[in-house]
Write a sequence for this structure.
């Protein structure tokens, strides 16, 4: 399943209002919960924070990809958030993170999770695309950019 097949406006939050890593993670989880994509928000939060404790998922060029495996989902699930001002997410390059892809997968499914991570890595190669995505003002703009629709 392609990453773009998972994206719809109800799982996109623009702008994110959190000002810390934990606030951003909680905000993204709330979006998933409101969209009916997860069964247990606290279990998801704990799984994400456990993964973050092993090493930050703040990448480079303003992207962060907090992710975890959890029984709270039955298939690969993603939420996208944009923080126009950026948040310190302990990124590899020391820069603020503005684009967040929070991904969850069931413990027994690695394939789709890995495929989605590699698609995000491909997107990250285009600094023009990333600047445009970070400048999105609405969920609809994000969906349009990600899907081409």
């Amino acid at each position: 399943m392609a990453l773009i097949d998972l994206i719809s406006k109800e799982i996109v939050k623009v702008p994110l209002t959190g000002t810390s890593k934990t606030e951003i993670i909680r905000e993204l989880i709330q979006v998933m919960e409101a969209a009916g994509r997860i069964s247990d928000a606290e279990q998801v939060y704990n799984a994400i924070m456990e993964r973050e404790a092993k090493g930050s998922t703040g990448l480079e060029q303003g992207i962060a990809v907090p992710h975890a495996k959890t029984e709270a989902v039955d298939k690969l699930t993603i939420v996208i958030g944009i923080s126009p001002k950026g948040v310190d997410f302990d990124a590899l390059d020391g820069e603020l993170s503005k684009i967040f892809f929070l991904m969850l997968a069931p413990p027994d499914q690695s394939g789709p999770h890995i495929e989605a991570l590699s698609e995000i890595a491909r997107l990250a190669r285009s600094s023009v695309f990333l600047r445009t995505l970070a400048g999105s003002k609405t969920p609809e703009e994000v969906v349009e950019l990600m899907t081409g629709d």
The beta strands are 12-13, 63-64, 67-69, 77-87, 97-105. Helices lie at 21-34, 41-54, 111-123, 127-134, 139-147. The mean pLDDT is 91. The radius of gyration is 14 Å.
